[in-house]
Amino acid sequence: MLVEVQHEALRLAIVIVCGNTNINQNSINEYFIKNDIFDPLIQLIISPKTSHMAYEAIMLLDILANYNKHESRNPYLTKLIDIKGEAVFEKIMEVLSSTCIKCQGQYIEIQEDDEANKYLISTVVSYVGSILPWYGSGTKQHSNVSDPELAFVRL
């Protein structure tokens, strides 16, 4: 029960921190700068019990570390630089690696869907072009359309 509450609180914190179009103008972020939650976030990242929350904890830590980092001293950025334990960085790299692999898989899936739709559109345009008598009049008939966008423009 406690782990679920922690997870929802972490998600809520991310929503609150990102609640403005410009994160550096979000005055609520000053609360998190003054009331440091760095150590609890690190514990969420490295603890085996809360490993499913590591992605969100890293995201929140990253957002807070980049908040006004050029205008004032940011305790999150300072503490991140001072970390000596390899376990934290290994977990961060593990999460980043799995996130990149997941994004790559989703991109490939989208590309495969695009290819399937491209061939479907090409087939439909070819069929419509073959049954319309005015399609291609005065020009060469195109029975095999390879570019669906060009075929649509010609319609």
TrEMBL record:
Biological source species: Rhizophagus irregularis (strain DAOM 197198w)
Name of the featured protein: Uncharacterized protein
GO cellular component entries: cytosol
